[in-house]
Amino acid sequence: MKKHMTKQEEFDIMKLVLDKFLWLGIIIMALGFYTIISRVQNFWYGFWVLVAGAIILILFSMLLVREYNFIK
Question: Within a domain: residue 1?
Fold first, then answer.
């Protein structure tokens, strides 16, 4: 027989997983910002890395909101 998780257990696991992806998005954005400021690469490379991090944050935030209906 399979055990079923309660809503609270499912939410706690989802928080742990999404927390890692949200940190990943923030780190990618910070890398893009650092690249823009320090001129390690050209400006557009840093800009697109920054945009990629923002997209990751938006996608996983939307997933979290859609899955758990935080906004009523």
Answer: no
Dist CA 35 CA 39 (whole Å): 6
- pLDDT tens sequence across 13-58: 877 887 887 888 899 999 989 988 987 778 899 899 999 999 988 8
Number of domains in the chain: 1
21 inside domain: yes
pTM above 0.70, yes or no: no
Comparing CA positions, the residue from 44, 45, 49 lying closest to residue 30 is 49
Residue 60: which domain range?
17-68
